């Protein structure tokens, strides 16, 4: 017999979520995750993926992955330290270091895993971490795993960061102090104030850690937020994902050779979880080559993002203060936000509502993720649908 206690726990909590309208039903796509997706037999303009450059369905990546499968098979067969390191894993890491302008890089199975791996490989209970309050869930979990003291910093508030850094340093309580931030914040699309963060880090001898999941492929001509600010030699840890703009799956840490050497002997997801598949590795490598060869996709992405933003703003929508292609359309009330997203869907636009607890109460939004793969016609159609639904619901 299975546990009655567990049954009671699950029943109670699932019912509670459903009652509050917070239970998320997941829609399975019947098509690739491109600019147009198929859902329940209907085609929709997709404004929800992180596939910024359209690389998830790019023929060049598909061909590279297919070749890799023929040459190496479908699985790496072991963790990296036993015999799961294929020569292509090493090549991918060399390419990532080149892409990020660092001495070295190490690949993981996901961006989430990077944060599970890297923070606790360096930080422990005698240390402190200054963490932006809007940091991604995987950063928060990675910090917790390290057992270091977590000091929450008001979002992008440099006075607060300086004050807390000073206090932590002067207390003499901690061996090491780290400052950790998203490069681009995924719900609002604002960019971390890295020049000021680096300045404060230099003043108080902080370790710097930037998770650039939403910045790579997007900012700095594709090389990311750190490059965007010209700080490649000033950030200790640069985290990236291979699953957003790169279009595949996986994650990496880029930094000094010694840091990467240490992660290879001390980070647990590297030591105890099987490595990326050959198809993932080679497709990711191809994507990075494409990004380094040309800024064409990056320019297309920005062009489309600016076009969508201008269109929505002109209609009178509140699109927040995004500095990147991430385009929130802030509705406010949670129920209305969900209704808005549902109506968009009925009219042919797939854009997800994001509400509390992912964002603060009363700031419910529909988040739009334009990509390089959208055509102007698709965006025009999406804007027209926004206008129709916005008027129907009295939002504009
Ligand atoms: C999306 C995201 C991740 C997770 O990346 P995956 O490769 O999907 O696991 C980690 N950190 C940040 C900041 C993210 O936005």
From TrEMBL:
One GO MF term: pyridoxal phosphate binding
CDD domains for this protein: KBL_like (cd06454)
The protein's Enzyme Commission number: 2.3.1.29
EC supergroup of this enzyme: transferase
Keyword Nucleotidyltransferase: no
Oligomeric and partner information: Homodimer.
Entry protein name: Glycine C-acetyltransferase
């Amino acid at each position: 017999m299975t546990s009655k206690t567990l049954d009671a726990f699950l029943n109670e909590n699932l019912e509670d979520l459903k009652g509050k309208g917070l239970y998320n039903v997941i829609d399975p796509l019947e098509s690739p995750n491109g600019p147009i997706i198929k859902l329940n037999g209907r085609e929709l303009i997709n404004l929800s993926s992180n596939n910024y450059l359209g690389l998830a369905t790019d023929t060049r990546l598909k061909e590279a992955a297919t070749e890799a499968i023929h040459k190496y098979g479908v699985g790496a067969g072991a963790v990296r330290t036993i015999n799961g390191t294929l020569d292509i894993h090493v090549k991918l890491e060399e390419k990532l270091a080149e892409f990020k302008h660092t001495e070295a890089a190490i690949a993981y199975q996901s961006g989430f895993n990077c944060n599970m791996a890297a923070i606790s490989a360096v930080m422990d209970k005698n240390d402190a971490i200054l963490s932006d309050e809007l940091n991604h869930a995987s950063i928060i979990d990675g910090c917790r795993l390290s057992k270091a003291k977590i000091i929450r910093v008001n979002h992008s508030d440099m006075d607060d960061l300086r004050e807390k850094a000073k206090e932590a340093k002067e207390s003499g309580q901690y061996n090491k102090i780290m400052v950790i931030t998203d490069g681009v914040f995924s719900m609002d699309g604002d960019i971390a104030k890295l020049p000021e963060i680096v300045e404060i880090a230099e003043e108080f001898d902080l370790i710097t850690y930037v998770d650039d999941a939403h910045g790579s492929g997007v900012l700095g001509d594709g090389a990311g937020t750190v490059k965007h600010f010209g700080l490649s030699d000033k950030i200790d840890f640069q985290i990236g994902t291979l699953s957003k703009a790169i279009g595949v799956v996986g994650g990496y840490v880029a930094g000094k050779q010694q840091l990467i050497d240490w992660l290879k002997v001390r980070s647990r997801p590297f030591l105890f979880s099987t490595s990326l598949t050959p198809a993932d590795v080679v497709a990711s490598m191809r994507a990075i080559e494409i990004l380094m060869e040309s800024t064409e996709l990056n320019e297309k992405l920005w062009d489309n993002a600016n076009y969508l933003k201008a269109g929505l703003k002109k209609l009178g929508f509140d699109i927040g203060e995004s500095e990147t292609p991430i385009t929130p359309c802030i509705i406010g009330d949670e129920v209305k936000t969900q209704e808005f997203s549902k109506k968009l869907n009925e009219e042919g636009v797939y854009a997800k509502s994001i509400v509390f607890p992912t964002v603060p109460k009363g700031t419910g939004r529909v988040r739009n993720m334009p990509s390089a793969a959208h055509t102007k016609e698709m965006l025009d159609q999406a804007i027209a649908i926004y206008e129709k639904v916005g008027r129907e619901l009295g939002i504009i």
